[in-house]
Amino acid sequence: MIVRRLVVGPFEENSYVVGDEATKEGALIDPGGEVDELLAIAEQEGLRIGKILITHAHIDHVTGAAEARRKTKAATHLHPADRDMLASVPGQAAMFGLPAVEVPEIDVWVEEGQIVTVGGLAFRVLFVPGHAPGHVVYAEKQRAFVGDTIFAGSIGRTDFPGCSFDQLVSGIRGKIFRLGDAVLLHPGHGPDTTVSRERKSNPFVGEDA
Ligand SMILES: [Zn+2]
Ligand SMILES: [Zn+2]
What we know:
By secondary structure, this protein is α/β, with parallel strands linked by helices. It is built from 7 helices and 14 strands.
């Protein structure tokens, strides 16, 4: 599986270009900006971008989604519980003093357990709300794109309206940790980590928390 990361925007959000080495079908995960650079990475890898997978509709994860959809004709994917969050993106921009952001159309509303294929890759959708009402994780065999649920040594903020610390913690323990210790986690901010490392030592959801 091809996985390339680009850190974008004022929130240093991790956008990912992923793809199937065999079929050369690809997807963008959380295109938070610098769309031309993301598409240049896809081109370097010889990937055709057919899908845009969005973990949740906070502004830093969707800033480039409308532009990427227009330039690639790729189908955007989001959970319906983040529909209102998506509609509030212009307000989020104003709140942070950022330039206006175009709200992307959503082509596919995903749900828990759904399989999203990208060539021969099969991403399973895990519904893990708490940081955002409609937050999902896209899990593919030994990797999971976890957005802002869990980070290396931390977890997503739950101090915004519509957040729930308890919901987030139970989703991380009940779904992400159950993917297995060897699974590599690609978060929405900061470096990669593993289930094993976070299960043992994460100060919020680890064994000693
Ligand atoms: Zn977020
Ligand atoms: Zn974020």
